[in-house]
Design a protein that fits this description.
Largest sheet: 4 strands, mixed
Number of strands: 4
Helix content: 10-25%
Oligomer: single chain
Number of helices: 2
Shape: extended
Length: 122
């Protein structure tokens, strides 16, 4: 069974669950809570935060190669976009363009993800 890492990324701490998933079952290997380090500015020091996180996961014996990260609601904005019919390879630039027009934050500071929905007739 492949190992999966589930991370609840919240304001106070990082809560982690490592589990073996497969065959219709889940076997928990490790569960831990790691408080955010006061010495690292999480908003502006991604490299420092990444190095710290790697060290913490290694110390804890985490070996999962796949991860699912859960973000708090206040850290995520969800919008429904109306896009013209376009080939799949043209959807990402259309999403970026619309996101840039709707956000006060510069587009290069945003992490964008999208899920195309089925086209509704009419």
């Amino acid at each position: 069974m492949p190992a999966l890492l589930a991370c609840d990324w919240n304001r106070d701490a990082l809560e982690i669950l490592e589990a073996e998933v497969g065959g219709g079952r889940v076997a928990v290997q490790r569960a831990l809570r790691i408080d955010w380090p006061a010495a690292i500015d999480r908003e502006h020091d991604a490299a420092g935060l990444g190095a710290w996180l790697k060290e913490e996961l290694t110390k804890s014996g985490i070996e999962a190669e796949q991860a699912v990260v859960v973000l708090s609601r206040e850290d995520v904005v969800t919008r429904r976009l109306e896009l013209p019919n376009a080939p799949d390879d043209e959807i990402p630039p259309l999403v970026r363009f619309q996101a840039a027009s709707m956000s006060a934050t510069p587009i290069d500071q945003l992490a964008l993800a999208f899920v195309p929905l089925a086209v509704v007739a009419g």
